[in-house]
Specification:
Length: about 350
Amino acid sequence: MRALLATAGLLVLAGAAAAAKPTAHTLRKSASGPIAAIAQDSGLAAWLTFASSHGCDAVHVLAPGQRDRSAPQPSSGSMTCHWNLADGRPQLAVAARLSMALWTLHESGPSPFDVVVAAPIGGPERRVGQLSHASDGTGDWLGGVAGAGKTLAYSWDDVEYVDKLACLSGGSCKERIANGGIRLVSPSGYTTLPEAQPALQLAAAGGRIAYVPATTVKAGRPTTTTSNTLQVVDATSGESVGQASVHGFPIAIALSPAVLAVLTTQGTAHDRISWFSAIGGTKLGSVVVSGLAAPQLAASDRVIVYRVGLFLHAIATKTGHIQKLVKTGQNYVGLSLAHGRLLWAENHNRTGRLRALAVG
């Protein structure tokens, strides 16, 4: 009898564990076209869609207790409407307390350029930046975008020759990072974040911005080195609140109110995800992951999510334990975690789905 009771108890526990397995669901379907980028902040979820033959590219926004809205409005007369989003990968950020979205539009060619566009949700778009560079890499490059709370920002980097005259006369054509920084976007325009260095990737949370400094130029484009110090700064004053030293190339970062997560690679069979205190920069933990990990991270104070192939995995920041979460579709886009909701998009043919999973 005791053995039967024990067996029954184990079956109950096994059933509970199976029932607790996270299940993804579709938040929204995009019948008008595939999804090019996603973002979320607080309860807002946003996604940028490619236009169908008769429609417009647009940012769609879902908010609890409200009808879905879009930006820009009116869409038909906007620059975004008929832009070729397949020409380069657009970036998207949203700031709930500003009720604004920011996105980027890329144009290839002999002199590639990126346009940075912002709009209040349900309002008209405004061009807040245009960054262009020559085929040799000299000029301005777009870095990253980020949004959270009252923070909406993008970064940029200026590449120039160390000695242009020497290069023209057959000497060294070495290039350097000559300028750059972070610009804060608001309903009134943009301002420069004080003291910010030239920056690559950005992440925002809790009134702070984390970024990867651009420190060198390789193959004509701004990049960083294998030993670098990531910065966490106040999103208003630019004052440093934390620094995190990493080894390996930082290829993805994510920020929560308490945790800065970094994915680094050495180009070997294994990469590493490390996490630090967002204030001060104390190292809290690290794990080795597959060298096939995608350059994407999402983080809360409790978990860090990354992708290998079609599978999403979560790292518990307290223990370092790794759990496989869910399998996604083939044509996936983006990764975002806020208030326990993990978001990504999946595209098939000319349609898309915004997918969600409760995490942590």
